[in-house]
Amino acid sequence: MRGVIKWPFGRGELLVLILFLLVGSIAIIIMIPVNFSASGAQAAGFGQPVTQTSLGPVTESDIELLTKVRQAGLWEIPAGRQADQRAQSDRVKQVARQIVADHTRLDEEVRDLAAKLGVSLPNEPNDDQKSWMAELSGRFGQEYDLTFAQRLRAAHGSVLTTVAAVRAGTRNDHIRAFAQKAAQVVMNHMTLLESTGLVDHTALSDVPVPSS
Predict the structure, then answer these.
(1) For 119, phi and psi rounded to 5 degrees?
(2) Using one digit for the tens of pLDDT, what is the confidence trace for 100-157?
């Protein structure tokens, strides 16, 4: 006759153990998002340190957006004013004036929003932007027009990637609204610069390869 297996628990203890395992399993299922990829989490800002403000949560990506828009204005406004005076092409001058007007308004908005969120912004262009401004200052005539159109078109294409990513994933309503406006301004400026006929698209940065 085979031996009888004896449980090390009493009936009451066994019921408590089963209940504990059942509750734990339910908790694990609830905590795991359905169909939520790692790339989706990154785009939404999850995994980043979050600062709570009176206007909602702010992530590092949100701060990067505000910083890049501020830096864009710090060099594109003076560059546009210079182009309005120095450019050979009337079309380049028209585009330069529009860029100055748009970035002046956008710069006011980004500084106002950053102040409300408690985010510190730069007050001078970065080293790359300073070198581009120096490069423009040394050009004249047709060469100036070509450099202006190409440099600003490349810069707008670069900042658009940040603006679009934050617009898609930020959890802050105010940042989302600002990113929407910034994206529209940046895309309009890209179109305006291309309308000069001076942008060499083969010299622009490669398009990032989409992740699967």
Answers:
(1) -100, 130
(2) 999 999 999 999 999 999 999 999 999 999 999 999 999 999 999 999 999 999 999 9
197-206: long-range contacts at Cβ-Cβ below 8 A with a sequence spacing of 24 or more? 197/91, 198/89, 198/92, 198/145, 198/146, 198/148, 198/149, 198/150, 199/149, 199/150, 199/153, 200/150, 203/150, 203/154, 204/153, 204/154, 204/157, 205/154, 205/157, 205/158
- Predicted model pTM: 0.74
Q: 3-state DSSP call for residue 140?
A: coil
For residue 46, CA distances in Å to 28, 61, 63, 128, 192 come to: 19, 10, 15, 30, 35
Q: At 38, give phi and psi (nearest 5°).
A: -65, -40
CB 110 within 8 A of CB 121: yes
Alpha-carbon dihedral of residues 92, 88, 108, 65, nearest 10 degrees? 60
Q: What is the DSSP letter of 52?
A: E
Is-contact 101 189, C-beta < 8 A?
A: no
CATH of domain 44-203: 1.20.1260.10
- For the chain, the structural domain boundaries read 44-203
Query: Cα–Cα distance between 161 and 183 in angstroms, integer?
Result: 9
